[in-house]
Write a structure and sequence with these properties.
Length: about 140
Amino acid sequence: MLDISAISAGLSSMKVAMDIAKGLKDSTTAINDATVNFKIAELLEAMSEVKMHLVEAKDENIELKEKIKELEKALNQKDEVIFRDGYYYLSAPQSGKPEGPFCSHCYSSSNELTLLTEVTGMLRNMGKYKCPSCEQRFGK
Ligand SMILES: [Zn+2]
């Protein structure tokens, strides 16, 4: 499941890093090397967490973009088909693509346009068409 937790976590880590840096800068009393080294180590740790969360956020961003592309494709496809006599058909012919009929079960369950195959011979009385994907039979 996608969320924006990586961005929130990254911002929290960034605040920690900035507070440490600010503390070092504003330090009025003389601090020894050991304290400085300790603060720098803390700073580096906070910064590496920022980096890690940014990588997570980047991955989430990529996933979200892919999901959007997928949804846009499904949305566009919805406009391209029409439902007629129990089957889906392309609303306008497209070169190199069959116009249908497509399986209504596959289309409504997973947005897949699966071309139905016409049944011949003895099995035809079980249905005029058969879906090669979900095996459902249609028509008499
Ligand atoms: Zn099907």
